[in-house]
Write a structure and sequence with these properties.
With about 450 residues, the chain is α/β, with parallel strands linked by helices. It has 2 domains: about 120 residues, Enolase-like, N-terminal domain (Enolase-like, domain 1, 2-Layer Sandwich), CATH 3.30.390; about 290 residues, TIM Barrel (Alpha-Beta Barrel). The chain has 13 helices and 18 strands. The strands form 5 sheets. It has an 8-stranded mixed beta barrel with strand order 5-6-9-13-14-15-16-17, surrounded by 7 helices. Strands 1-2-3 form a 3-stranded antiparallel β-sheet. The chain has a 3-stranded antiparallel β-sheet with strand order 10-11-12. Helix 7 runs parallel beside helix 8, helix 9 packs parallel to helix 11 and helix 12 runs parallel beside helix 13. The two termini are about 15 Å apart. Bound molecules: 2-phosphoglycolic acid and zinc ion. Zinc ion binds next to loops.
Length: about 450
């Protein structure tokens, strides 16, 4: 095993929205190779590292020829000769090479693809799956999944204001069972909407694209879908929301286009607290806009003991922001999206900051995805406890759920499942909520190679 980097190559590939994106390949001296593809968001936080696009006429300005050239050019030259197994030193080199806080010079898409590809190359060199290369023998915790049933906001032409209506499965014994339940709810929701004439298609992350008259109608329909699928709302299948409020709120004003009304920050807190009182909601992401830390604190104060309050656009996978939010009592969980920062090490730092603050972590995909499976391995390798990759349709989503199933099967009796107790708490430290999966519940199969 010789993990010295001997070559780096960029390739322009395509994402789930049919837009160009960046793939990096990293070769090591022992012949191992690792590849990774950068994802892309649509409802991005203003504090995110830059997804470098070329602008101009081609592909709506979304081309990535400059970022791809940076991978094989400047970045490749800078990391060739370095040890890929020294991920922190490698990522520090990438950060310093770019030299800007938001990776605006080389592009976080270019930098991230190289950072992740190096981790894959090391795992290949070690002959183990990435989750094990990252977490060793202790990496046995399968994440509690949040899975989208209806898509809205920026992912469905803003037909409803709220972006993600998701389900979580508190009563599931293991990861596989959580997916089984979700599949039934997804099917039931589709059938209900078809009958009601409120189904317009499928949104960006594979969830049903609804034509509801109010945002609350989505919640009512979701509860009915859970019941129709044969589950008890709350106990067996519950609701998680991503409000993505930065998309319709700014300066303390929130404009709900579907309902033709505008609320202030207190009004939003009141609206959401009302929903939490009436529906079995366990997790709410970005309930307020990214510029409304006070609103986040008020919301967390009001409902943070009952629901998980997740910062996505608000915290942008940034360790310093997580610490600041914890000090203010704003949020109790952080969404971890590697491309919001641009390196594996910085993503890990945000997770460590969360752990120290007693925050939960949720590894998350973007609305623009590919067949890349890295995030599943991060969730399990680091023992993060939760995973969000969109809905239960479209293969850029299903590939990730399926990879977690493969890992659960490979771990066999050693697999543990993060139950609902993980919500709003660190998966490993928040012991009261952590429910080990039943021994032997999952068939033993050979380790993934
Ligand atoms: P995005 O959506 O990838 O478009 O930002 C995902 C999310 O908001 O969680
Ligand atoms: Zn979000």
């Amino acid at each position: 095993m010789n993990t010295e980097i001997v070559g780096v190559q960029g390739l322009r590939v395509w994402d789930s929205r049919g837009r160009p994106t960046v793939e990096a390949a990293v070769w090591l001296a022992d012949g191992s190779v690792g590849r990774a593809i950068a994802p892309a968001g649509a409802s991005t936080g203003s504090g995110e590292a830059l997804d470098l696009r070329d602008g101009g006429a081609a592909f709506g300005g979304y081309d990535v020829r400059r970022a791809v050239a940076n991978v094989g050019g400047e970045i490749g030259a800078a990391v060739t000769g370095m040890d890929a197994a020294g991920q922190e030193a490698l990522d520090r080199r990438l950060v310093e090479l770019d030299g800007t806080p938001g990776k605006t010079r080389l592009g976080a898409n270019a930098v991230l693809a190289v950072s992740l590809a190096a981790a894959h190359a090391v795992a290949a060199s070690r002959g183990v799956p990435l989750y094990r290369s990252l977490g060793g023998e202790d990496a046995t915790l399968l994440p509690f999944p949040q899975i989208q049933i209806f898509g809205g906001g920026a992912h469905a032409g803003r037909r409803v204001d709220i972006q993600d209506f998701m389900v979580v499965c508190p009563g599931a014994e293991n990861f596989a069972e959580a997916l089984d339940r979700t599949a039934e709810v997804y099917r039931a929701a589709g059938a209900l909407m078809r009958e009601a004439g409120s189904l317009a298609g499928v949104a960006d992350e594979g969830g049903w694209w609804p034509t509801f008259d109010t945002n609350e109608q989505a919640l009512e329909t979701l509860v009915r879908a859970i019941e129709r699928a044969g589950f008890t709302p709350g106990d067996e299948v519950a609701i998680a929301l991503d409000i993505a409020a930065s998309e319709f709120g700014r300066n303390g004003r929130y404009r709900l286009g579907l309902e033709g009304r505008e609320l202030d920050s207190d009004g939003m807190v009141g609206l959401l607290a009302g929903w939490i009182a009436r529906y079995p909601i366990l997790s709410v992401e970005d309930p307020l806009a990214e510029d409304d830390a006070q609103g986040f604190a008020a919301f967390t104060q009001a409902v943070g003991d009952r629901v998980q309050v997740v910062g996505d656009d608000f915290l942008v996978t940034d360790a310093a922001r997580v610490r600041d939010a914890a000090a203010r009592g704003a949020a109790n969980a952080v969404l971890l999206k590697p491309n919001q920062r641009g390196t594996l090490t910085e993503t890990r730092a945000a997770f460590e900051a969360a752990r120290q603050a007693g925050f939960a972590g949720i590894v998350s995909a973007r609305s623009g995805e590919t067949e890349d499976l890295t995030i599943v391995h991060l969730a399990i390798g680091w023992g993060v406890g939760q995973l969000k990759v969109g809905s239960f349709a479209r293969s850029e989503r299903m590939a990730k759920w399926n990879e977690a199933l493969r890992i659960e099967a490979a771990l066999g009796a050693r697999a543990r499942f993060a139950g609902a107790g993980v919500l709003g708490r660190d998966a490993e430290e928040g012991r009261p909520g952590l429910r080990p999966g039943p021994a032997g519940a999952v068939p033993q199969t050979p380790l993934l190679k």
